[in-house]
Amino acid sequence: MSKLTRHVLDQSGSGVTMSVTEMCFGSGSTVVYCQAALHADECPPLLVARQLCQQLAVLEAQNRLHAEFRVVTQANPIGGQQWVRQHHVGRVELGTGQNFNRDFPNVAAFVVEEIQHRLTVDPVTNRAIARELWHEALAGLIPEHPVMALQRTLLQRAVDADWVFDLHSDDEAECHLYATPGDMAVALSLGGRLGATAVLVEADTGAQSFDDTLMQCWATLDAAFPNRGFQSPLTAMTVELRGTRDVSVALAQSDCEALLGLWSEHGLVTYDSGQLLTEPVAYPLRGMDVLTTPYCGLLVWRRSLGDLVTAGDLLAEIIEPDQPERDPRQIRARSEGRLIARRGHPWVRAGDVVCKVAGSKPLSWRFGNLIGGRQ
Ligand SMILES: [Zn+2]
């Protein structure tokens, strides 16, 4: 039977109660975790999660689920209710400016320290002990602010997972995904089902995003204790469901079919696995240029999403209304690749991310935090 749970957040504020809403379906030792709109203004995942719950309920009634499915239908109630003068702000917490999908608490050091005396020869037992300690560490964290309380709650629901799908969207974008090298084949398969064009691949983005943090904890354990069952117990990826305004029943239904198709391919559900819509290309995340504007003004595009560009190509112009006699400023590609995401709002200030160009060659200026702009 499906089950609805509201995970109440600590630190919501005096007189305020906020909760993360989750639906669970099926049962079994394998856990599939899916969350919608950690960046609360990225709306397409909210409709996909709703459709997914409806489909999972039907499949459960037909005994066609072979795992436990956890669908967090609203991952970020804090960002969901932030408004400034009638403009929704869902990407960062207004009180601190913290991006909701950065700097998740990583408790790997605690797990490594505590597990060393309890390791067995059985990988399954070792993973169970690791998860138990991981839960213990998260339960012991004292959230210092509301974002940390939210992040802890989401991690607590995902620690048990064998599969994690973090559903986001970019500003204006083609469908694309972020994954580690070990999960690239799965991401390409899901991407093809979604109609994606690109999979951005990197072992560690340096951003401590949600899926990063989960993957890094397992990677830290595997590095400390090789061959003890900690190599790739989790398949995780971030899925960018096009642009924030690409909300439609038809798209959500298609995206839902894509997820179910992938899960069917891996024996998690019994379902018609469907067709591949595209053949996405895998690019190194270090090969994705994230272009910013050094100018303030009106952003006018000269290239479209999906265009293949080379270094030097004119991508956009910035019109400076206070310089009516000057030629427009130019934003040119710095590398060869595919234009996969663009800024949607046409008024920009210096420093704003304006687009992403995914290319096959790692770029020398891409280091440190490799995720820029939306993700
Ligand atoms: Zn996002």
Give a written overview of the molecule.
The relative contact order is 0.14. 28% of the residues lie in helices and 26% in strands. The protein has a 9-stranded mixed beta sheet with strand order 1-2-4-3-7-11-9-10-12, sandwiched between helices. Strands 8, 13, 15, 18 and 20 form a 5-stranded antiparallel beta sheet that branches. It has a 4-stranded antiparallel beta sheet with strand order 17-16-14-19, with no helix packed on it. The chain has helices at 44-61, 77-80, 108-115, 123-140, 146-158, 184-194, 210-224, 249-265; strands at 3-8, 19-25, 31-36, 68-74, 83-84, 87-88, 163-170, 172-173, 176-179, 198-201, 235-243, 281-284, 288-292, 297-301, 308-309, 314-319, 329-332, 337-342, 347-348, 353-358. It contains 8 helices and 20 strands. The protein folds into 2 domains: 3-279, Aminopeptidase (3-Layer(aba) Sandwich); 285-358, RNA polymerase II/Efflux pump adaptor protein, barrel-sandwich hybrid domain (OB fold (Dihydrolipoamide Acetyltransferase, E2P), Beta Barrel), CATH 2.40.50.100. Helix 1 crosses helix 8 (249-265), helix 3 (108-115) runs parallel beside helix 7 and helix 6 (184-194) runs antiparallel to helix 8. The mean pLDDT is 96. The protein has 375 residues and is of the alpha+beta class. Helix 1 (44-61) links the parallel strand 3 (31-36) and strand 4 (68-74). The longest helix has 18 residues, at 44-61. Bound molecules: zinc ion.
